[in-house]
């Protein structure tokens, strides 16, 4: 056999022997590992069985302890429940005993009452017998009296009643007359007392408004600035405010003249701001006057609010509060309207309190009774009816509305406070020195003068100045031409001459001004 073939065969046999030997060694190692794993598994099983046994015993012990604890709690609850039941049974027994005792006492009392009732019945029978005997004796006595007097009992009774009736009527008439006379005396005395107390307890300061206001200056040099070049500043002030500025030789003073206190106040405040600012020219004057007018509107509201707070009046509509504030700048026959209304309100409150009425309602009616004298628009109604209409419009009490409308007998008085307001208005206005009739006539003439000019078409503003001796009429340049201005001045003068009564003469000045305004930005 060839040597190479033999070598191949030997190599193959060696390879086979190596493979078989390797498998034998691997099988031997695997068997050993399996045996070790079985031993570990048996060990773990035993440990698990021991641990499970231990846990089982612990749980059994815990269950026994829990059972013992629950049993003890149950026994305790049973004991407590049995105790409460026994206590309840004891209370029930005690109540039963008490009820039995009461039943016994009640039975005893019933027996006693029955005995008392029998005793009373016997006494009633005795009384009835005695009454029967008494009636027989009385009838016998009456028969004897009738026999002696020759009259029956009914006739004697009638004669006695008639004589007593006549005597009682005579005495009643005398007493009635005395009561009436005494009541009249006391009523008059009490009425005088109430009125006097009301007047004495009211110490309202009275201010008689004039038609001029003096504006004080720091020096006379400021007068030149106020007048301006060729008088343009003073003309601008007069045109914007409707107030006549009198600049004379009076040192450090300028006189503001106007029948309207509100205009004078606007002019005074405007001058004060202009002088403190130092810039006085027509454009600045108009700007300051407009700002002052708005500021005064706020001041009017503040005056009204302060007045109602001081008088203790609540829930007044804001528009009525504003009207009350406007009364500060109005006068009635020379008497300041706000001071007059405050005085009437205080008098009404005091008088209503004295008479046992509602003082707050009376005070409210007294304050508002003249609100018709400061209307925002001219109307044909009297101030009393206009005031009632305004009060009703702004939700006032019907008693207040009636008191306002009836304080001059223009409405029927339907409430008790209405005559109180009328009386207090008369007390405040009719006392000596309170009013000046001539002043009121003068102010009315000035108003009529301005209203006459405002009735023409194209007239923007109209101011009566120089105590009514001059009427300045400011017209709109777009509606009135220069030629129409001359014609308007003549027509107004003729109408004043024919329709109005006035002392001296009145100068009518129509002012037409064309402006072109642009703003540089």
TrEMBL record:
The keyword tRNA processing does not apply. CDD domains: HDc (cd00077), KH-I_RNaseY (cd22431). It is a single-pass membrane protein. Keywords: Cell membrane, Coiled coil, Endonuclease, Hydrolase, Membrane, Nuclease, RNA-binding, Transmembrane, Transmembrane helix. It is an enzyme of class 3 (hydrolase). The chain crosses the membrane at residues 6-26. PROSITE patterns: HD, KH_TYPE_1. Belongs to the RNase Y family. NCBIfam families: HDIG (TIGR00277), RNase_Y (TIGR03319). Endoribonuclease that initiates mRNA decay. This is Ribonuclease Y. It comes from Danxiaibacter flavus. The lineage of its organism: Bacteria, Pseudomonadati, Bacteroidota, Chitinophagia, Chitinophagales.
